[in-house]
Design goal:
The chain is of the alpha+beta class. The protein is 45% helix and 13% strand. The longest helix has 15 residues.
Length: 284
């Protein structure tokens, strides 16, 4: 096995990308298959010298921002971005992330679970400051599961929005949803939290510019209320108003979704197998 797997990965992916694929002219005399180092370096916003050191294994500690820029420039799919990040972590000299400080809890208090029970069949979900989905009503499960939002052992709304290809189809107004998720994350996650730092590094590589650019922008306050459009595969378009209830002692927030029009109210009733009129529309 090569002791420079990160460099080999970058070089082979660079050679597999044609200039035309990244909007560059294709000259008649090219000795290098795929992109030249200078071309990739320009696209990624780094120096040729630094890219050369990475490919040759003379630098094994690229930042998540550099990895994200290279992944964007190489048009890597999500699974390749995940592999790139793993290779970088394995080849680097950094110490394992310290888990000191505050820990984002995944424990749900009995009173919070009781509150969720009382909200049935309303779609409601409990999140911690990392966007991990901790608990939800059956109404939320029927809403979110067909979208793919609850897939995996530890579903995460941030990871779904930014790295799951189904998210852009699920949320027609994806840009605004992405803005809101980053705003909530930046507002709630403690600046010293190593778990938040690890998630930022992960998404900077796996999601690239759509996440990194939002993290680099001026922070804004998240909206506690609003309305979202959801393209549901079973009942069609939904317009959902939401209210956010903060549980500051737990570092959690409860988001309750309500139908914002009569068509959405009827659609949610169908999802829950209830007679029309069980959920009433809330007019904003």
């Amino acid at each position: 096995m090569s002791d420079n797997e990160l460099g080999t990965f970058l070089r082979t992916r660079r050679e597999a990308v044609t200039p035309a694929e990244v909007g560059l002219p294709t000259g008649p005399r090219r000795r290098t298959p795929g992109l030249r180092r200078a071309e990739l370096a320009t696209l990624a916003g780094i120096s040729v010298e630094y890219l050369t050191r990475l490919e040759q294994g003379r630098d094994r500690n690229p930042s998540s921002q550099v990895l994200g820029a290279l992944a964007d420039a190489l048009r890597l799919a999500v699974h390749d971005r995940i592999l790139l990040r793993r290779l970088a972590k394995e080849s680097g000299d950094d110490a394992v992330l310290c888990s000191g400080g505050m820990t984002p809890t995944r424990m749900v208090r009995p009173t919070t679970r009781a509150l969720l029970d009382r909200l049935e069949p309303t779609p409601a979900v409990l999140l911690n400051w990392l966007g991990d989905i901790l608990a939800y009503t059956t109404g939320y499960e029927r809403l979110a599961a067909p979208l793919g939002l609850l897939d995996g052992a530890q579903p995460s709304i941030l990871r779904f929005v930014f790295i799951d290809e189904r998210a852009r189809a699920a949320f027609p107004d994806w840009d605004r949803v992405a803005d809101e998720q980053v705003a909530a994350f930046r507002h709630e996650a403690p600046s010293s939290d190593p778990h938040a730092a690890a998630l930022i590094d992960e998404l900077t590589v796996t999601a690239g510019a759509p996440f990194a650019d939002r993290m680099a922008a001026m922070p804004v306050m998240p909206r506690p209320t609003g309305a979202d459009l959801v393209a549901h595969p079973e009942v069609g378009p939904l317009r959902l108003a939401h209210e956010t209830l903060a549980l500051p002692n737990d570092g959690q927030r409860l988001i309750v979704h309500l139908p914002a029009d009569d068509a959405t109210a009827d659609a949610l009733d169908r999802l829950n197998g209830r007679r029309p009129g069980a959920l009433r529309a809330v007019n904003n």
